[in-house]
Amino acid sequence: MITIETHRNNWKKWRPRVFTFLTVFLSIVLLVAGTFECIPAWILRNPPDAIHLWHIAELTALSAILVGGAMFGLVRKPEEKPLLAQFIVQITGMTEQDAHALQFHWIGSALLYVLLILAGVLASTKRPGWKRLAIVTGITYIFLAGIALLVLVGHMSRLLPLR
Predict the structure, then answer these.
(1) Which residues are CB-contacts of 84 (< 8 A; sequence separation ≥ 6)?
(2) 113: Cβ contacts below 8 Å, ≥ 6 apart
(3) Structural domain boundaries of the chain?
(4) For the whole model, what pTM was predicted?
(5) What are phi and psi of 4, to 5 degrees?
(6) From the first residue on, what is the mean pLDDT of each consecutive set of 10 residues in the chain (163 residues)?
(7) 62: Cβ contacts below 8 Å, ≥ 6 apart
(8) Checking phi first, is residue 104 left (phi over 0); if not, alpha (psi -120 to 50) or beta?
(9) Helix axes 105-123, 130-159, angle to 10 degrees
């Protein structure tokens, strides 16, 4: 029993160091991977990449700056920054065989919500076409509400079988 307690105490001492090492290592990997295409495209001006400069910059921003920066933010006192860890866990779901992440469902969901918010803001300006945009946005919300109810009923029927 004493051996088990000693092993647990040793692991508690090493766990923060291992976590710090991994976050620094992964931050560097993301920085290198994110700039892998950006440097030849933007600095060396690789001619075949000229048409894709914006998309390459977006991928660099996503991997090197956004995800790498969030990962690097966890190097010091990660227990005080749970939001950063949650953000990274949603993204790394793709590597954990999460069916939704592998098929980009989470990204599609986020894009849909951002576009619905944008549509609502644009419709509120009452510029020409606002009524049509408001109607389409409202129909989209009604559709999603109906689907949510169907999913809820499906889950409830499995939880509470009819006798």
Answers:
(1) 70, 71, 73, 74, 78
(2) none
(3) 1-98, 104-163
(4) 0.51
(5) -65, -45
(6) 64 79 85 78 74 76 80 83 76 62 66 89 93 93 88 75 60
(7) 34
(8) left
(9) 140
